[in-house]
Write a structure and sequence with these properties.
Layout (H helix, E strand, L loop, with lengths): L1 H27 L36 H5 L1 E2 L2 E2 L9 H14 L1 H4 L23 H5 L2 H10 L13 H19 L18 E3 L5 E3 L14
Antiparallel strand pairs: 1-2, 3-4
Length: 219
Amino acid sequence: MGTTRNLRKLLPVLALIAVTAGCRIDMHIQPYYRPMAKSDFFSDDRSARLPIEGTVARGDLREDTYFYTGKIGNNLGDFLPFPATQEVLDRGRERFNINCTPCHGRVGDGNGFIPSRGFRRPPSYHIDRLRKVPIGYFFDVMTNGFGVMPEYGTQVAPRDRWCIAAYIRALQLSQNATSAEIPSGQKVPSAPPQFRDIGNGATLPQIAPPAAATKGESK
């Protein structure tokens, strides 16, 4: 008698398990098309359908045209789309050292490692022509490529490209600043120091070896 009563109590639970199990099976075996499979339902026999015209992927609306192109209409812009903070310049230096120095060199003079192995040498950022171009020019070249330089739009995020462009401007200033632009109490060497790579993207000034002692001079 007790066993029968217990079974009656279990019947609703067993029924629920059976129903949910059936639903789970249905979800697992629902019909679907494999990639590139043929479909007789559509007139072009393709199961894969193009997105509806005007469809925008989530997070890719790109309402700020200048941020993604560096242009205002057909003209290159000459301002950053966000404030040029120390954080922006630090990020630009990091990304520049990773992506740009192999060709352009640490100070942007075009004396990178790759040109030293026969690849075409890029122009120095410190020539008059590139010192006068708007900052949007650098963003556009990084985005779309120019000459033998490939595009980096698919490798470097838009904000990082702007950070690099800001850092290039800082490099140009560092190599062409006048004495009036140097902060009070600071001194700048007359010639840019040579650098040596110590790994992890870091550099230290290269100390020149001591000059050989001249004849008659004590060692």
